[in-house]
Design a protein that fits this description.
Blueprint (H helix, E strand, L loop, with lengths): L3 E6 L6 H8 L6 E3 L3 E2 L14 E2 L2 H9 L3 E7 L2 E6 H9 L3 E5 L2 H11 L3 E7 L3 H11 L4 H14 L8 E4 L3 H17 L3 H12 L1
Parallel strand pairs: 1-7, 1-8, 2-7, 3-4, 8-9
Antiparallel strand pairs: 3-6, 5-6
The structure holds adenosine-5'-diphosphate (ADP) and guanosine-5'-monophosphate.
The site of adenosine-5'-diphosphate has 13 residues, from helix 1, helix 5 and helix 7.
């Protein structure tokens, strides 16, 4: 039994968390990779549920210790994916879902491309993104402005992804996500294919 990785990227406010939550009952058993970050928790966010919230020093100790599969600086804070729980979930044959930025996607693809399926999630327009970020009301105006500027950069990486989901109507986006999650589980890695070829030869 082999596991698989599904990377989701897209501007902050695109609806990644909303889509995962909405599709959750329909995508079978999966492990959501909880990232570590140096950013401040938003109201309602919990340590160990949404993120592991750590100090700058703690994060840099983690880097030195080789704890991260990938890490990047996003909007001025460190964000990283811990290697150990991901390897454990893959060994158990689970679908591992990452919500990481486009830099993280590049790093994970370079290291574990054989296992990776990826989707870029975007709202229909930049104006709609702005509207959703203000409506979410979890960040100050200056932070929202920074996220919108970042979104203009991130969209340039859209061509690096296997799939694109335009999150206009949540039900449709969630159904597309379910299809992609099922396809990710079916992706065969090279090792599996080589085994199959050997089996046919012998
Ligand atoms: P992300 O995880 O990508 O940062 P969120 O899932 O937090 O984004 O979504 C940002 C905001 O947009 C939330 O307030 C959410 O309720 C809202 N939202 C998400 N999808 C839709 C949609 N299809 N239509 C309208 N609002 C949406
Ligand atoms: P937010 O602060 O809105 O939760 O996340 C900001 C951005 O950081 C999002 O684009 C999100 O996908 C990205 N991000 C979250 N965790 C990680 C991670 O572990 N690694 C990388 N590279 N990006 C992450």
């Amino acid at each position: 039994m082999q596991g698989a990785i599904l990377v989701l990227s897209g501007p902050s406010g695109a609806g990644k968390s909303t889509i995962i939550n909405h599709a959750s009952p329909n995508i079978g058993e999966y492990y959501f990779s909880i990232s570590t970050t140096t950013r401040q928790p938003r109201e309602g966010e919990e340590h160990g549920v949404d993120y592991y919230f750590v100090t700058h020093e703690e994060f840099e100790e983690g880097i030195k210790a080789g704890d991260f599969l990938e890490y990047a600086t996003v909007h001025g804070n460190y964000y990283g994916t811990s290697l150990k729980p991901v390897n454990e979930a893959l060994a158990q044959g689970k679908l591992v879902i990452f919500d990481i930025d486009v830099q993280g996607h590049r790093l994970v693809r370079a290291k574990m491309g054989d296992y990776v399926t990826s989707a870029f999630i975007t709202p229909p327009t930049l104006k709609e993104l702005e509207k959703r970020l203000y409506a979410r009301a979890t960040d100050d105006t200056s932070i929202i402005e920074r996220r919108i500027e970042n979104a203009k950069e991130e969209i340039n990486a859209i061509g690096e992804f296997d799939f694109v989901i335009i999150n206009d109507v949540i039900e449709e986006a969630s159904s597309q996500f379910t299809t992609i999650a099922n396809a990710a589980r079916l992706k065969q890695n090279r090792e599996e294919l080589e085994k199959m070829v050997l089996h046919w030869r012998n």
